[in-house]
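Go through this pair.

…
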Amino acid sequence: MKGFAHFLAGLTTATFVVVIANMYYGNNLIANAIVQNKALIIILGGIFGILPDTIDFRFARYIQRHDYEVDMDEWNIDPKLVAETLAKAIDQAASEKREVNVMLHTIKISSDQWRQYSVQFDTENKKVICDIGPVISGFEKRPYINSYLPESKSHAEASFSADLKYDYDKVTYVDILSGPDFSFFPEEDGSVRADFIPWHRRWAHSITLGVMFAPLGFAIYGFTPLGWTAFWIIMLGFWSHILTDHFGLMGSNMFPPFTTKRVPGFKVTRSMSTLANVYTNYINVLLIIFNMNAWSPVKYFEMPWTQMLNISYSNYAEWYTVSLLNYIIYYVLPPVLISYAIVLWIRRKMGVKEMTDEQARSAEQLEELGGASV
């Protein structure tokens, strides 16, 4: 998801923590303290909700070490160099029993023109395939018609011997801004695991780091009820980023240093999906409004079900559970489902198609590299 979606997810998580804290401490102790402190504690959820990407894109990417860098220009295009370097790195990781990293630089022609090329890992036939594509125009990625190269100069293959495991998109497009990098790791069974942009979603996207940041709540508010609330807001806000990301493809490394591999994502959507980001933000905003009303000293709205069932606010846990269920069923899900159906109907009527697989993969990879958002 985009950065704003992660920020809102962290804020939403924080409002749920406040609800639970109110249930535990009672008498609106936490809610009143938050009002007096101008709700700064809630912002901690948003800050730590975007922190994993901030660490990766502002720090981790710059300390990544590379054994090989492939840097071509428009006058020296060689797809064989790309394919052979990657194949060599795969076999080297297997033979030397160590991690081998390769960086693929983009081919920049002018301020708004790049030469696109693609890399494919054919794990069945044990080949790396490189195809040189057209010159494209910046973020639109519009190809210039007369910029294609003949196959003799645009296609190359290189074989490798090791068994390769790669669970991301088989085809990677290298086009604008900074290029992608790959890490190849020897596995215990003799195979080699390939990771796309290995510095991303490693230790900074982990349950472990969320636990380590949580005690900052005590440093800010002391060992008080507010400090314990901040503890959970920081930790769960950080974890909300990991959960949101996990609906995509790449996944995250959950428990470093005890684990070294990413757990694959659920593959439900892509981080560049406009609908996924819009609906995620919409749901988060509605939940924030509901929770802030739930622990506010003054209630600005009441759910019909609590009045129908004659549930008193004094029985806070029951009142909140019934109210939240009522809110979601009446006000959250229907607009999302109806608007999604309308969007699909309009697209079919107007003949608007979704992005092609190539465009989707290229956009997703750009997002993961931080080109579109952090």
About this structure: DSSP finds twelve helices and eleven strands in the chain. The first strand starts at residue 68 and ends at 70. Residues 3-59+206-368 form one domain. Residues 305 and 325 are 9 Å apart (CA to CA).
